[in-house]
Write a structure and sequence with these properties.
Number of domains: 1
Structural class: alpha/beta
Radius of gyration: 15 Å
Mean pLDDT: 86
Shape: globular
Number of strands: 4
Largest sheet: 4 strands, mixed
Distance between the termini: 30 Å
Strand content: 15-25%
CATH superfamily: Metalloproteases ("zincins"), catalytic domain
Strand order of the largest sheet: 1-2-4-3
Low-confidence stretches: 164-177
Helix content: 25-40%
Order of helices and strands: EHEHEEHHH
CATH class: Alpha Beta
CATH topology: Collagenase (Catalytic Domain)
């Protein structure tokens, strides 16, 4: 597999940096999702940052002026006509460390397990998966559960954990709603 996964940790100099999974772990989670979806080559960025940055992105791109756990920014729709790349550039995933930690604590799950879920979830969004309607949600959740099981991580949906979902909405993660 030829995956180029750029990990950007804006928290590297903060005390929480020790709580962030290793680049190798993050890469393995994203790679599992890419492989499961039939890709053998791809490029994406995973940015780990704070609530202020995520809130700004969420406000500017989704109209929601609050932080959220993960945002996915697919690149495929934005490639200028006639431009071809040697490797598929999928887009960017932005994970809010503070929201991720708060959700994991509230749901009584490990930070590593929740982080893995958000990486896989965000990667699947870059690949076109979504959870706007029930059928899409079931398909995406089933794939997430299958991929997490490969890492001996239990289903995040087993106890009906709700992570920062707006009322009346099944999605809050992608600007491509």
């Amino acid at each position: 597999m030829d995956f180029h996964i750029d990990i950007q940790n804006t928290l590297a100099e903060q005390s929480v940096a020790n709580e962030i999974p290793s680049a190798a772990q993050i890469t393995s989670w994203a790679s599992a999702a890419l492989t499961a979806c039939g890709l053998s080559t791809a490029e994406l960025t995973i940015r780990i940052t704070d609530a202020n940055e995520v809130q700004t992105l969420n406000r500017d791109y989704r109209g929601n002026d609050k932080p959220t756990n993960v945002l996915s920014f697919p690149f495929a729709d934005e490639l200028p006509e006639g431009v071809e790349l040697d490797i598929p550039l999928l887009g960017d995933i932005v994970i809010c460390n503070e929201v991720m930690q708060s959700e994991a604590q509230a749901a009584n799950i490990s930070l590593e397990h929740h982080f893995a879920h958000l990486v896989i979830h965000g990667t699947l969004h870059l690949l076109g998966y979504d959870h706007i309607d029930d059928a899409e949600a079931e398909e995406m959740e089933a794939l997430e559960v299958k991929l997490l099981a490969e890492f001996s991580i239990p289903s995040p949906y087993a106890n009906n954990h709700a992570f920062n979902e707006p009322e009346g909405s099944k999605t809050n993660h992608s600007r491509s709603e």
